[in-house]
């Protein structure tokens, strides 16, 4: 595995001025010398190169790899909408024709006029997945219920549409607890809206899901989301999920059987009131969603195994 960030860095580290400028120019730095180390690793021998969230990898690097004998297959994986400029880079733009396989959780990115039109020769759509070592039922200890519990909770980054929906719930008498980055601007807006001001990861995330009666799943409009990692992680934690409705996600978890759905703010408020009053119904749906998530091939292992098989079936081509 080749790291792409400096040793000791975390997701919460604020970007430097240089990083922000490079982000705007779509020319990210390579702080961990990932390009050099990738070529070195390939020369030591490998069958597959898997590139994930590595926008600093340059086309010259992949061209060097393809000149090896025999050349390894090169596969990319993205959970974001790669038709959006902010999710790629100049380097990735120029590298797309060099990938033997592109794996995406955005079904529309596989349409002929999207990633294939940008030079990707083979695109594979996959649903989102979960890590069974992290996303699993975790019951908070008795003294942790206050720390993580809620009638209605949301875990995720601030977005204006999400804020509007949760303020609508609070004004309608439904208390909401929010975990994630960027929500400080909502602090104090309503007594029924509890802003934690920090994200939760790993066991803390699983405890929030397990201790919340209703777990909200919003879609990011800027990312054209039809499903997200939350769409699978919440059921995998045996949480009751109330999710924005669309045909793709309702095909994953059956409405009223394995998850509940809403289409707008009035339906969201009505749904929260209905399900908060039905403890037994929530438990039945949460259990059914858990069984579907954990037995339906939605784990990271299943996703990677399928993608690796597809990538290895692709015959690499010379640049």
Q: Topology of this structure?
A:
Layout: H1 17-25, H2 34-43, E1 48-52, H3 59-66, E2 73-78, H4 90-95, E3 101-104, E4 123-125, H5 145-148, E5 150-155, H6 160-171, E6 176-179, E7 193-195, H7 202-211, E8 212-217, H8 230-236, E9 241-244, H9 247-252, E10 260-262, H10 265-276, H11 279-295, H12 300-312
Parallel strand pairs: 1-2, 2-3, 3-4, 5-6, 5-8, 6-7, 8-9, 9-10
Helix pairs in contact: 2-3, 8-11
Describe this protein's structure.
This protein has 2 domains: 17-129 and 301-312, no CATH class; 142-297, Glycogen Phosphorylase B (Rossmann fold, 3-Layer(aba) Sandwich), CATH 3.40.50. The chain is α/β, with parallel strands linked by helices and 319 residues long. The mean pLDDT is 93. It has helices at residues 17-25, 34-43, 59-66, 90-95, 145-148, 160-171, 202-211, 230-236, 247-252, 265-276, 279-295, 300-312, and strands spanning 48-52, 73-78, 101-104, 123-125, 150-155, 176-179, 193-195, 212-217, 241-244, 260-262. The two termini are 24 Å apart. Helix 2 (34-43) packs parallel to helix 3.
For the structure shown, list the relevant keywords:
Rossmann fold; six-stranded parallel beta sheet; globular; 2 domains; alpha/beta; 36% helix; 12 helices; 10 strands; 319 residues; four-stranded parallel beta sheet
CA(first)-CA(last) distance? 24 Å
User: Strand order, biggest sheet?
Assistant: 7-6-5-8-9-10
The structure class reads alpha/beta
Domains, number: 2
